[in-house]
C-alpha cells in the first residue's frame, strides 16, 4: 500500500508532513465493500453469569441491552474517536455468548460500502457492549474484568485483508 501524500514515512496517516494530527483525506479512494469483526471478553463470578442467564436480573435482559448499546455505539464512533470518518454503516451485528462458567464473549461485525474501513466501529461496538454489561451487573459483581478487546478480521480496502490468527 502506498501511503497518502500527507502521511509521514512511518505510515501513520493521521499525521501531516509537519507531524500534526489531521483527518485523512479519503476522497481519492475507491468505494468498496468493507467489513471488520472485533471481540471483547467480560470475565465475572460464575454466580453473576448464572444471574444473567436466568432472566432474573432486576434490570431486565442484560444481553439485549448490551447488544443495543453496541449497535448504537458503532453508529456514533466518529463522535467518540477524534479524526474518525463518519460512515453510513450498512450492517452492525453484535453477538453475546455465555461461556461457562464465568465469561461472556462479545463479537461485533460491521459492514459498509465506503472509502474507509470499519475497524474502529467494530472495536467501539464490542467495547461499549462490554461496558454496558459491566454497568448492568456492577451491583452484584464489581470485580468483573473486560479484556481481550481486539480486531479479529478486516476485509476490503486498499490495505487488504487482516485476520487475527489466534482468535478464540
Automatic annotation (TrEMBL):
Please name the InterPro entries in this protein's record.
MoaC, MoaC_bact/euk, MoaC_sf, MoCo_biosynth_MoaA/MoaC, Mopterin_CF_biosynth-C_dom
The residue ranges flagged as biased composition, category Polar residues, are: 1-20
Function of the molecule: Catalyzes the conversion of (8S)-3',8-cyclo-7,8-dihydroguanosine 5'-triphosphate to cyclic pyranopterin monophosphate (cPMP).
Which residues bind substrate per the record? 83-85
Query: Region entry Disordered: which residue ranges?
Result: 1-32
Summarize the subunit comment.
Homohexamer; trimer of dimers.
Under the heading NCBIfam families, the entry gives: moaC, PRK09364.1
Where is the Molybdopterin cofactor biosynthesis C (MoaC) domain positioned along the sequence? 23-157
User: In which organism is this protein found?
Assistant: Pseudomonas izuensis
Q: Known EC number(s)?
A: 4.6.1.17
Q: Which family does it belong to?
A: Belongs to the MoaC family.
Pathway assigned in UniProt: Cofactor biosynthesis; molybdopterin biosynthesis
Protein name, per record: Cyclic pyranopterin monophosphate synthase
Q: Which reaction does it catalyse?
A: (8S)-3',8-cyclo-7,8-dihydroguanosine 5'-triphosphate = cyclic pyranopterin phosphate + diphosphate
Q: Which UniProt keywords apply?
A: Lyase, Molybdenum cofactor biosynthesis
The entry's active site is: 135
Identify the enzyme class.
lyase
Q: Which Pfam families match?
A: MoaC
Q: Does the keyword Protein biosynthesis apply?
A: no
Which SUPFAM superfamilies does this UniProt record tie to the protein?
A: Molybdenum cofactor biosynthesis protein C, MoaC (SSF55040)
Q: Which domain of life is it from?
A: Bacteria
